[in-house]
From TrEMBL:
Residues 211-275 form the DUF559 domain. This is DUF559 domain-containing protein. Gene3D superfamilies: VSR Endonuclease. It comes from Agromyces bauzanensis. Transmembrane segments: none annotated. InterPro entries: AbiEi_N, DUF559. Pfam families: AbiEi_4, DUF559. Residues 14-52 form the AbiEi antitoxin N-terminal domain.
Length: 290
């Protein structure tokens, strides 16, 4: 009696969604049942001897067809982590013993890895280490804090990651926090680090409401450009917030995502000009009306 398609599918799903014929055989899936499952559309054959559940993403399919697994920024994006620049191509982690296989529409970015994970995706630790080498410190740090925030990495994984990356960049792991609220916060904290400026996010200020960031004691930094910020009354509301904040002894700077992303030097200069004048520090208790 062949296995029904549902059973074959669940065996493949248990193996991570992508499995080799011998792994499926070890789970009790005989070749005939496998063929039926492919015919019924619950499994797809990605390449010789490798099968995937029908819901496997196009990115994972491409990585496996290429001869590897989903890695680097593509793996990070698939996990729903914060990223600064979306990957335009599929990033593939290839085992050193592997060989590239031709497939339709291949523009894959390849990372050679000592070993690759099961189920068609690299481990998150491997993927994060690949991001550091591929996209640099900022993309790595933002993804790392996102993984920590979602508790997709634990202390053991962090220690493995720290050991994996070059010694000169391990401070990035030490500097990362478990409670970042957004990728923007991670990016700002990383960029402001050389200046030694403390940054708090999502701060509730009496009379003003919740602001994006407070630098030091009393310099409010608001970053516009989020979809829910757009509206005809936005300008007036912003002015009210700034005026009320000023009345409470705060100083405000307002930027948008494009400025932070593409014109950081001018944003940094504006912040530092305030900081140099001590406008981010206050001897009075911040937030108390005069
Ligand atoms: Zn490819
Ligand atoms: Zn990459």
């Amino acid at each position: 009696m062949p296995l029904d398609a549902f059973t074959v599918h669940s065996h493949c799903a248990d193996l991570g969604g992508v499995a080799r014929t011998h792994e499926l055989a070890a789970a009790g899936v005989d070749p005939y049942s496998l063929r039926l499952a492919v015919r019924d559309g619950v499994l797809v054959r990605l390449r010789e001897g490798v099968y995937a559940t029908a819901e496997t993403s196009e990115a994972v399919r491409a990585a496996v067809r290429h001869g590897g697994v989903l890695g680097c920024l593509s793996r990070v994006a698939a996990a729903g982590l914060w990223i600064l620049v979306e990957p335009a191509a599929v990033h593939v982690a290839m085992p050193r013993t592997g060989r590239r296989r031709g497939h339709d529409g291949c523009d894959c970015v390849v990372h050679w890895a000592p070993a690759v994970g099961r189920g068609g995706t690299a481990s998150l630790v491997d993927a994060l280490a690949q991001v550091l080498g591929c996209r640099g410190e900022e993309e790595f740090f933002v993804a790392l804090e996102s993984a920590m925030r979602k508790r997709l990495v634990r202390r053991g994984a962090l220690a493995r990651l720290r050991a994996r990356i070059p010694a000169g960049r391990r401070w990035l792991v030490d500097f990362a926090r478990w409670d970042a609220d957004s990728g923007l916060e991670s990016l700002l904290r990383l960029r402001l680090r050389p200046n030694g400026i403390a940054l708090a996010s999502q701060v509730e200020i009496p009379g003003v409401g919740r602001v994006d960031f407070v630098l030091g004691d009393r310099l409010i930094l608001e970053v516009d450009g989020k979809p829910n910020h757009i509206g005809p009354s936005k300008r007036h509301k912003d002015l009210v917030r700034d005026v009320v904040a000023a009345a409470h002894g705060f100083d405000s700077l307002r930027f948008d995502y494009a400025l932070v992303g593409h014109d950081w030097p001018i944003v940094e200069a504006a912040i530092l000009a305030k900081v140099e004048r001590g406008l981010h520090l206050d001897r009075r208790v911040a937030g108390r009306p005069r």
